[in-house]
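For the sake of clarity, the format in which proteins appear in this thesis is described at this point. Each number in the token line that follows is a code from a learned vocabulary of backbone shapes. One such record is shown here in full, so that the layout can be seen directly:
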Amino acid sequence: MNTITDTELQLRGIEALIAALGVVHAERFVSLILREPFDYTQWQRDLWPEKSLEEISGMAMDNWNQPSE
């Protein structure tokens, strides 16, 4: 795994949000995250409560292996 700086991680994250959502919705997403208390770990636990770790891992690998559009 490549180690990247915090600044590079932030830049890549914003670029990914903009690519996925467009500028306006990316800014809206960031403002929602900053405005509301958000526990990412708890959110992940609640996201797919019926799925096992193996199923979630498989979903992630399937998504990773999808050709990019």
Remarks:
- The chain is about 70% helix and 0% strand.
- The two ends are 24 Å apart (CA to CA).
